[in-house]
Prior knowledge:
CATH topology: tt1808, chain A
Shape: globular
Distance between the termini: 43 Å
Strand order of the largest sheet: 4-5-6-7-8-9
Helix content: 10-25%
Number of domains: 1
Mean pLDDT: 91
Strand content: 25-35%
CATH class: Alpha Beta
Amino acid sequence: xxxxxxxxxxLPPISSEIRATANGRYEIxxxxxxxxxxxxxxxxxxxxxxxxxxxxxxxxxxxxxxEISLNIGGITRRCDTVVYxxxxxxPLMIVExxxxxxxxxxxxxxxxxxxxxxxxxxxxxxxxGKKHFxxxxxxxxxxxxxxxxxxxxxxxxxxx
Length: 160
């Protein structure tokens, strides 16, 4: 499988198990879900980003889950990635991915805000693999502050 079919990402390279299916498509192994997933451009970003969180920023893989079902206003939606707090198991960070060719627009931020209405995470992240945005939610003042980078796991833990 030629991963060059996807645009280069602003994330460290990964080593992934990729296989061709009988119908000519490709699948990538997702360690978080412990199974092969259809390899789309968005999935390529997800796999890179999750491994970036784990291997470069120190996030425990045991606290990260992909494709979490949510019920928002009676509609079932899927949040791309959730990082859970080790202390209480509540969502600490949610991440929304787009394919590298998809621009990060206000609509993407509205989508993650909608998910967060159900999850109340402290950090919201949006990435298309080329650009990454992270904001910290302060529910006391009801404000969101954009951060210059995705925080290290250690800094999230010491800030509590």
